[in-house]
Design a protein that fits this description.
single chain; mainly alpha; two-stranded antiparallel ribbon; 2 domains
Length: about 170
Amino acid sequence: MVLQQQCDNATSALLTLIRALVISKLDYCCSVLAGAPETLLHRRQSVRNAAARLVFSARKTEHTSPLLRELHWLKVPEHIKFRLCVLTYRCLHGTAPSYPAETIRPVSGLATRRHLRSRHSTLGDRAFPATAARAWNSLPCYVRDMPSLLAFCRELKTVLFRLSYPVD
């Protein structure tokens, strides 16, 4: 019993370290990677996979999807979309800095047309206004209409988690 508790404490400490030293670095400004080449996203995913293997003391040959699912870590494309949508939610609700918030706006105030349009389409397909509008418009209406940031994040992660790990 004492040995099991020590192992659980060591795993918990390792997970805290990995979140602080590795995952936080991967998360920093990851929304700028929307539309990035697959090779770049694959590198980031391999770092996440290695971190998950380290937490569970798994072999390099072991498949990581069950490990990532157990940790509740989204895969890289879905994680990028998560960060992008959270920033968009904050822009639309006035809690984000003004510089990204000024670049996006709703198409209409009507509840039936709650889509976004980017103002600066000349910046390119990977610019924040374009990627934010695409990510936001792809969300189900019930997620976009969440009343608080906490509820929005919870529902958004649930939707994206199902995309990352579809039930077979």
